[in-house]
Amino acid sequence: MIQDWPWAVAGAGLVVVAGRRVLAWLKQRQILDRPNERSSHSLPTPRGGGLATTPVMAVLLLAMAWQAASPLLAVLAAGSLALLVISWIDDRRGLPPGPRFLAQGAAVAVGMAALPDPVLSGAIPLWLDHVLAGLGWVWFVNLYNFMDGIDGITGIETGTLGTGIALVAAGTVLAPAGLLVAAVGAAFLVFNWHPAKMFLGDSGSVPFGFVLGGLLAALAASGQLAAALILPGYYLADATITLARRAANGEKVWQAHRKHFYQRALQGGKRHDQIALAILAANLLLLGCALAAANGIPAAGLAAAAAVVAGLLALLQYWAKKGAPT
Question: What is the number of structural domains in the chain?
Fold first, then answer.
């Protein structure tokens, strides 16, 4: 079995080095995210940190795939690079939803082909299992992008989610892969912690969502479905509830907005870093719930995770209302 820590250390170090060069290039080219009515920031900020995180993650995943003879890791690496290209075009010029979803669906379809085992515990035919799991994976890619709306949130989520995958899947090839992705996401906080010097952009958040979604699917296929649902519990709940609300109101759900729970807490007066740290605390509790589920008590782990997610959503809602004008 390949070692975990060298990959993570290499990933973190390379992201810091690459990030400095990418930041300088973005500034030189004036590739900036300029504030508008849907923004959560007030100053023009370089956008394109995915040019640093995604290539580092992909190259190291490819090397890991070669060493471990893992088709899944190779697919995740290649898919993340393909989505980097599509997402960079979207960042710079804008793309309609169709081409984006087509590219994501194609990448996910190849990823599902690399997962011969059922993802949903074998309760349904394999073809239906893979269709439903694939749709969930595509949704996860998009919600990961939707949730990248304040300083530090994606680095926090990626760091804790990747670490959780590594701990639950200890002793398998998923462990070093999860730890690598965690290190890449956490290292980006050097540039993205509040006040952010650089934003990730779709070129970073979409590939992160794709790779983590694939690792979670593989974790579920290994028999750890409960843990795979628990680890991203807050992201799943916030994005899904917000999407459902917007759809019920007849809004165009693919358009940018500021209606996520964390965004409304920011509008209520809380700082980016305060919200990110609250999410970190909840994610660490979710990690404990996932470990409990993985060690023979899935019902208790799921119940505790639901309570943690509900508590965080209630806190964010309280912050939003507390700062709202009367």
Answer: 1
